[in-house]
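Re: your question about Lipoprotein

S., sorry for the slow reply, the queue was backed up all week. Below is exactly what I fed in.
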Amino acid sequence: MKNLVYIGILFIVIFGCTATKNNNAKTFKQDDKAVQNDTVRIANDELDYEVIIIDPGFNSWFYTYAKPRDYYSQQYLEARNRTWVIEWNARANRGDRLIDMSIDYQNNIDYGYEVNYMLYNYLTYFQLTNNIKLGGFVPRI
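Result:
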């Protein structure tokens, strides 16, 4: 009888490990698709400026939490973007492990509403999901 119990426990352990292994494979394939579909390109063709965001999870966050266009004024977005980009670039120059590249955002250029809107939302997403403050203004949704 003891042997039967041990064999039963052995089957449960083997079955439990096998089920976990298959679930991980499915999750990886779904994540791979999410990475391919989570590239956002924002462009102002009139001014030849663009923002390309490649960050898994940004699209779903954006459609779930971002305020609608025209909720903020362009001046509001520019003020936050200037402050956050300065800190972003400082961290990029120091070799921060989360920030690979600097952002070329210049104060004297009018990038248009759409570029500022998407940059603002990405920087808000980045700060909230990584629990990082880029200085000045507290990110809010």
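The chain has four helices and two strands. The chain has a mean pLDDT of 75.

Happy to talk it through on Thursday.
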